[in-house]
């Protein structure tokens, strides 16, 4: 169990570091703009900032398949995937709600100008723009990793290939031969457990250790440091975090920082954390009610390259976009329901897997 938790913690630490480093470079570019002409000055470097985010999203997604293998190995099991991820499918330079990354990065000058209008000094306004950019960049990079993880788990929830010589063992569990020739449990993740990190906020603490279906989106707030651990119901020994135990491990000051004094008082008085903390978060929905994205929908985009019909209607830039919207993984799973073949077909159609 400890090995699995260590693998998950190491994976998340590296992902957090990647997002933080990228955000720091983007903020560095922001610090170099001319405060007297923020929009024009930032416009000259925003494209470079957007490319930095795109590259980080690619790396984030590319790390997911190896992570899945490492988790299975830590369980002493073997995992197979029906199709590998296409990292570029999660890193086309667009936000998770379909806007060009350049548009999202306007959050820098927009927030800076709002700060000035509210009476902040130029220095304070630049700080406000930097903070907004850091949050936006880190959130988009983390989001790419979450979407890739959802698809990766789905592709591993399949019968073991014949080449692995699967057979039923004790308790009806499936066993296979690994690449080293040793017989090992077959790891087929159908859900994941949320694991929190030190310093987690109250919204995350109450979700610690909870099981989620593999197709359930990984809810996170900006700059969230939680991670997911794919689990197989046939594997009994998996790490989980008890919110109450984590709460008890915190110092009085840490409890107040996470829950606020009133929240701590209520919890100490016996209140349910779930009643103290409102952990619900909304998700964006397009005008037609579907979760879709414009990423990769230009003629040169990963998805656009598979399409023939393009239009400028609704396109937020000079480039044409595909007439057929590119659905998000969450929407694909919703449409496919329990039809696995249909889900795989749609994931390929929308360029999320090979």
Provide an overview of this structure:
About 2% of the residues have low confidence. This protein is mainly alpha-helical and 354 residues long. A hairpin with a 5-residue loop joins strand 1 and strand 2. The longest helix is centred in the middle third of the chain and has 35 residues. 46% of the residues lie in helices and 8% in strands. Strands 1-2-3 form a 3-stranded antiparallel sheet, with no helix packed on it. The chain has a 3-stranded antiparallel sheet with strand order 5-4-6. The protein has 2 domains: 275 residues, no CATH class; 58 residues, no CATH class. The two termini are 33 Å apart. Helix 1 runs antiparallel to helix 4, helix 3 runs parallel beside helix 7 and helix 12 runs antiparallel to helix 13.
Q: Which structural class matches the secondary elements?
A: mainly alpha
Secondary-structure element string: HHHHHHHEEEEHEEHHHEEEEHH
Question: Over all CA atoms, what is the radius of gyration?
Answer: 22 Å
The helix count comes to 13
Question: How far apart, in Å, are the first and last alpha carbons?
Answer: 33 Å
Could you name the ranges where pLDDT drops below 50 across 5 or more consecutive residues?
Answer: 278-284
Main β-sheet description? 3 strands, antiparallel
* Overall average pLDDT: 81
The best one-word shape is globular
Count of all domains: 2
Strand order of the largest sheet: 1-2-3
* Beta-strand proportion: 5-15%
How many DSSP-defined strands?
10
């Amino acid at each position: 169990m400890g090995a699995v938790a260590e693998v998950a913690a190491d994976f998340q630490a590296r992902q957090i570091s990647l997002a933080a480093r990228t955000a720091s470079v983007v903020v560095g570019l922001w610090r170099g703009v001319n405060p007297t002409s923020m929009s024009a000055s930032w416009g000259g470097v925003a494209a470079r900032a957007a490319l930095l985010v795109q590259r980080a999203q690619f790396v984030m997604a590319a790390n997911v398949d190896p992570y899945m293998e490492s988790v299975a190995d830590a369980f002493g099991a073997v995992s197979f995937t029906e199709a590998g991820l296409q990292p570029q499918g999660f890193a086309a330079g667009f936000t998770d709600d379909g806007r060009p990354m350049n548009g999202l990065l306007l959050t820098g000058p927009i927030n800076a100008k709002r700060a000035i209008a509210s009476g902040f000094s130029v220095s304070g306004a630049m700080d406000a723009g930097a903070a907004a950019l850091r949050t936006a960049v880190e959130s988009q990079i983390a989001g790419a990793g979450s979407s890739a993880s959802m698809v990766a788990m789905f592709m591993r929830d399949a019968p073991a290939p014949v080449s692995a010589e699967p057979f039923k063992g004790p308790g009806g569990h499936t066993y296979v031969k690994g690449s080293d020739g040793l017989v090992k449990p077959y790891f087929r993740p159908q859900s994941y457990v949320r694991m929190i990190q030190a310093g987690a906020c109250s919204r995350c603490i109450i979700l610690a250790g909870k099981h989620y279906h593999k197709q359930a989106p990984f809810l996170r707030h900006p700059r969230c440091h939680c991670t997911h651990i794919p689990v197989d119901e046939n594997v009994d020994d998996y790490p989980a975090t008890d919110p109450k135990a984590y709460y008890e491990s915190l110092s009085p000051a840490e409890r107040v920082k996470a829950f606020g004094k009133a929240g701590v008082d209520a919890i100490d008085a016996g209140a349910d954390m779930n009643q103290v903390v409102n952990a619900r978060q909304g998700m964006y929905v397009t005008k037609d009610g579907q979760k879709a994205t414009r990423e990769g929908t230009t003629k040169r985009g990963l998805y656009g390259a598979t399409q023939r019909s393009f239009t400028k209607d609704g396109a937020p830039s000079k480039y044409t976009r595909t007439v057929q919207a590119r659905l998000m993984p969450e929407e694909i799973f919703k449409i496919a329901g329990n039809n696995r073949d249909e889900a795989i077909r749609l994931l390929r159609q929308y360029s999320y897997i090979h």
